[in-house]
Amino acid sequence: MTKLYTTAQHQRGVTSWVLVLFVMAIMATAIVAVLLGHKIGYQRGAHSIQAKAAKSATGEALSAEQVEALKLKNEILANDVATAKQELAISLSNVDELRRDDETLKISNRQLEQVNEVFASYIASKGGLPLKVIGVKMAPLPENAFEYRFDVAMVSPDGSAKTLTPTLTLLNDDSLVEVPLDPKRYDINGVARIRGRFMMPEGFKPMQVKLTLKAGSQSIEQLYDWQLGSNVEDMPLSLAELPEVDENPVDNTVAEQTNPAN
Question: What's the pTM value of the predicted model, to 2 decimals?
Fold first, then answer.
């Protein structure tokens, strides 16, 4: 009996230790699971935080770049606005200067007209100024064209403007060519400037130029040797590229009068 009790008691002790070991194994397993879960959760959390931080940093970097771009655009726009204001100020200043120059020119023209009227009136009171040519110039142009410029003076005894009718004729030994003039008539009470261009007929070589003038009761006929002024500088290749006819007074009589007829 004593032996059986001892064996049973020994078996109960072994069983208790087995239970203790089992419980300890379960607890160890639970602790390991908890630790492993905590580690995994920590790693995942840390990764998530790092990802969010990276996204946030990237977003801040993009925002900074956008801000710099906007600042640059704003500076460019400000410079453009400043330049536009300066150009506007310069333009307004130029317009004002042109307006003043135009007004000064108008005043000068009115003053000159007044002086001309006084002299014309004085000349008329002294019997007037007979019809005469005071300037002649012929200039070659492209495409066998020519430009004529005649300055004519006259003041009638009654002081009124007269209608001036010019006729221009080219002459050689065998034939003549009448040049069509445009305009055909001018008003004269002082100085009239006859200007225009014509095409020389093919093969025609003039030797003389005859200018016939009629105004009121007066008429004259002037004959000039065919002489041309100096060529126009930087002559264009075609008539279409030419500027308007020169309205400046002729400096002097280029062509020599050979046989005037009254």
Answer: 0.57
